[in-house]
Specification:
338 residues, alpha+beta, T-fold, 2 domains, eight-stranded antiparallel sheet, five-stranded mixed sheet, binds flavin-adenine dinucleotide, binds magnesium ion
Length: 338
């Protein structure tokens, strides 16, 4: 969960997401706005010279996220992603360059994470009914059945025509693990283009920070097994931080926790980690890789990170044991109490 504690006012638990911003850079003018978008709270803090200009910049940034939700949401019947899913097994769907880029980037991360990040996971995710009332785990036979409909290499992408085709009926893609980070990147660009000198865009477990002064903004990392408690913090001037975890969208059935991140190898929700926080230059990277590394787990994940300069991660197991890549080892500050 991200908790943002502005220097002026402490925001209540309702805003707890995955990281906490414990302090904000000071500047003559600062605004903060929160809107519900992409199924989560999108929180924008913007600092600059004039309040009206900041409000106008925030309006444009929220409109940008709304634009992206329209076309990338699998929850909206008329989105580009839903059109691709509706035509699975029927025909390729022509999409705009931005949607095509996101599907292509997802395929790239799928390959680089040995299939851990896989947007074709949708049919294998839906049977877990994570958002239903009184959900129960599906039978193993059903898990195996739906798993046959996944696999990022099955997607047929035509670069010339910018079409995406899912060759088997019942296949489906879900950009839930990458599009919020990308939306934060786009919102930051809009804020900067509109004169905002420093700010934060936070969408669920994904946060972009820019214009931090001195050592930067303090961002707290949530204890995944103690809601509202921060267990460590980092300072960041510019960049992206994303957290993926098993404590936001989950249920416990017969003492077993089932969350919304599915291991594409097994079709079962990931159980080896409680949360992974990733630091990267961009939100699209940090978002996709927090999900990928959550699936890979800390052993394989730390190996992958050795070959990916600029990507850093902090893993917390359900036992509370943690594992850091080099940057987190050198920059993570333990926070006791709160
Ligand atoms: P992340 O780790 O970043 O992503 C986890 C999500 O990725 C899962 O929820 C699933 O969607 C997907 N996933 C699961 N396993 C894998 C895997 N192995 N590889 C790749 N992806 C995987 N939620 C709603 O309830 N209502 C909405 O209307 C709604 N609209 C949305 C619109 C958009 C454009 C997006 C991007 C998301 C929307 N969501 C909605 C989804 C909600 O925001 C998710 O809970 C969120 O995307 C999960 O993000 P996270 O940062 O918590 O976790
Ligand atoms: Mg993600």
């Amino acid at each position: 969960m991200i908790r943002i504690l502005q220097s002026k006012a402490r925001i209540g638990p309702a805003l707890l997401v995955g990281l906490a911003l414990l302090s904000c850079v000071r500047s003559p003018k600062e605004i903060r706005r929160v809107e519900l978008l992409m199924g989560t709270e999108v929180d924008i803090i913007a600092q600059g010279k004039s309040e009206p200009a900041l409000q106008a910049a925030a309006d444009r940034a929220f409109a940008e996220i709304e634009r992206l939700e329209q076309k990338l949401s699998r929850y909206r019947e008329d989105s580009a992603i839903s059109r691709i899913n509706q035509q699975a097994g029927i025909a390729p769907v022509a999409v705009d360059a931005e949607t095509f880029m996101l599907v292509q980037k997802s395929l790239e991360v799928c390959r680089e994470s040995s299939g851990a990040f896989d947007i074709t996971i949708l049919p294998a995710l839906l049977i877990w009914k994570i958002d239903a009332k009184n959900p129960q785990p599906p039978a193993d036979a059903e898990v195996k059945e739906k798993l046959k409909l996944t696999g990022c290499e099955k997607m047929v992408l035509d670069r010339e025509q910018k079409t995406v085709f899912l060759p088997e009926p019942g296949m489906g893609i879900d950009l839930g693990g990458i599009a919020k980070g990308y939306a934060a990147d786009c919102a930051v660009k809009i804020l900067k283009d509109n004169g905002v000198s420093a700010g934060i865009v936070k969408a669920g477990g994904d946060m972009r920070v820019f214009g931090g002064e001195g050592k930067g903004l303090a961002i707290g990392i949530q204890n995944p097994r103690a809601s509202g408690k921060v267990l460590a913090k980092i300072y960041l001037k510019d960049g992206a931080v994303s957290t993926s975890g098993d404590y936001e969208r989950f249920y416990i059935f017969n003492g077993v926790r089932y969350s919304h991140i599915i291991n594409p190898k097994t079709g079962y929700p990931v159980s080896g980690e409680a949360s992974v926080t990733v630091k990267a230059q961009s939100g699209i990277e940090s978002d996709a890789w927090s999900t990928a590394l959550f699936v890979l787990g800390h052993e394989r994940g730390l190996e992958v990170l050795k070959t990916r300069p600029g990507l850093e991660a902090f893993f917390i197991e359900p036992s509370g044991e943690s594992h850091s890549s080099q940057w987190f080892r050198e920059n993570l500050i333990a926070v006791s109490g709160d």
